[in-house]
UniProtKB/TrEMBL annotation:
Signal sequence annotation: 1-21
Pfam families in alphabetical order: SBP_bac_1
Organism listed in the record: Microbacterium terricola
UniProt cross-references to Gene3D superfamilies, sorted A to Z: Periplasmic binding protein-like II
UniProt keywords, alphabetically: Signal
Phylogenetic lineage: Bacteria, Bacillati, Actinomycetota, Actinomycetes, Micrococcales
Name of the molecule in the record: Sugar ABC transporter substrate-binding protein
Keyword Metal-binding attributed: no
Length: 455
């Protein structure tokens, strides 16, 4: 099974990296160090040359500051950092190193939904015995669940994406709309604006399957169950009633012309956001940074955005969901896993790095030392025209988030889900039909990879 999954991971359709943390670059001096190969070339300059070093791959935009902050404050170990590419560029290199059995760094930055894929290939180390207990209270149970598989911990959480609903205040004011608190209210508001000749209320982009996974979970779905204690078994249920209800709901919005079907994270979509083509944007706490970087909120559309809590399927049972987030994991190729865990748990965990991250809209930090600080909670966000978005929306959402169980073949799942969402957009399938088709595809694929599937 491990070999099959490795091949599949290398050939599956790449999913575009959707986080603000997926932008960045590097440059600078290099020194020899570490496990050898590409991982041994440091972008940063190590000044404490008498200390052991741990190699790190990562692509946060402020990674140079983060590494220097860690190294300056640490007298046990130094981080030798390289940016080998962001998102899928890094994952491709890591997959090559896994297949070759050499060339991986000691520590690697991964998006949380990628972790199970590498766990099933035995490419990551369980760090639960290497200091996790010492920092456990720094993060919520949901943050830890996202970087865990079963009872094992395979990453040190850094940032996340608690979800909310961004909206255009000018459009809401013009049409007398108040932020919907339920998805039924969302549809009612969308119909009201359409009937008045207004813009689309939102957008169903086929290229954001992670959003729709989150919304099915918000409605009570459990798409995957997996535990490395029983590595040959996986539970798959993406066509349960909760999932079908969500997909049928969005298919109905598309059919009624209430939402668009433009792929997100494209120049065309951003142009529509700037031009007021959409009244809402269902997204995550990192979205203001992404939108600002894309040129939204400047010029004529400046000061026209606000954020509200994500609408609920059942107000009697509110559920907080997440889109995105990254962590630092220790690879199984590291010859010094305990030392590597010190770096994974300590890097991007100091006050200076975390403050730089959130103040410059690079990350939404998951560290409770930040989430409970007055400076962060009470911050007036410029993109939202001074709204205290953290206090009103994102911190409560982060606090309530209970975590996901991700698939060990996430790339394949997202790629196939994208196809089904595209079929919904084209009117070729209902939401329920798309869910049934996705279920069959995933079960067949998992069986081919050697899993015993439970539904």
């Amino acid at each position: 099974m491990k070999k099959k999954l490795a091949l599949a991971a290398g050939s599956a359709l790449a999913i575009t990296c959707l986080l603000t943390a997926c932008t960045g670059g590097n440059g600078g001096e290099s020194t020899e160090n570490g496990n050898g190969g590409e991982a041994a070339s440091c972008t940063n300059t190590i000044t404490k040359t008498d200390l052991p070093t741990v190699t790190v791959w990562g692509w946060y935009p402020n990674m140079d500051k983060v590494v220097d902050n860690f190294n300056e404050g640490n007298d046990e170990v130094q981080a030798c950092w390289t940016n080998v590419g962001q998102g899928n560029d890094e994952y491709d290199k890591f997959q090559t190193a896994i297949s070759a059995g050499t060339g991986a760094p000691d520590v690697i930055m991964l998006e949380a939904d990628r972790i199970p894929n590498y766990v099933v290939q035995e490419a990551l180390v369980d760090i639960s015995g290497f200091g996790v207990e010492d920092v456990k209270d720094n993060f919520s149970a949901g943050a830890w669940k996202d970087v865990s598989v079963g009872s094992a911990v395979y990453g040190a959480p850094v940032d996340g994406g608690p979800m909310g609903m961004i909206y255009r205040t000018d459009i809401f004011d013009e049409y007398g709309i108040t932020p919907p608190t339920t998805w039924d209210e969302y549809e009612t508001a969308a119909q009201k604006i359409k009937d008045a000749g207004g813009p689309l209320f939102g957008d169903l982009g086929a290229n954001v399957p992670a959003v729709f996974m989150a919304l099915t979970i918000q409605n009570g779905a459990t798409p995957f169950t997996y535990d490395p204690a029983t590595p040959e078994e996986i539970g798959i249920k993406v066509n349960d009633d909760a999932s079908k209800e969500v997909l049928d709901y969005w298919a109905g919005l598309v059919e009624k012309g209430l939402v668009g079907t433009q792929d997100q994270f494209t120049p065309e979509y951003i142009s529509g956001v700037v031009g007021g083509d959409y009244a809402t944007y269902v997204s995550a706490a990192w979205a203001p940074g992404y939108l600002t970087g894309a040129g939204v909120g400047e010029g004529e559309d400046a000061g026209k955005f606000a954020v509200a809590p994500l609408p609920q399927w059942d107000t009697a049972n509110p559920v907080s969901v997440n889109w995105g987030g990254s962590a630092f994991s220790v690879t199984s190729q590291s010859t010094q896993p305990e030392l590597a865990a010190k770096v994974a748990l300590g890097i991007y965990a100091d006050d200076a790095s975390l403050t730089d991250g959130w103040q410059n809209q690079i990350i939404f930090p998951l560290n409770n030392n930040v989430l409970t600080s007055d400076e962060f909670v009470d911050a007036e966000v410029g993109f939202f025209n001074g709204q205290q978005a953290n206090k009103e929306v994102y911190v409560p959402a982060a606090d309530a988030y209970e975590g996901f169980t991700y698939s060990p073949f996430g790339s394949f799942y997202y790629a196939e889900f994208t196809k089904e969402l595209a079929a919904i957009n084209a009117g070729e399938k209902t939401g329920s039909e798309a869910a049934d088709s996705l279920q069959k595809t995933l079960v067949d694929y998992a069986t081919e990879q050697g899993f015993t599937v439970t539904e």
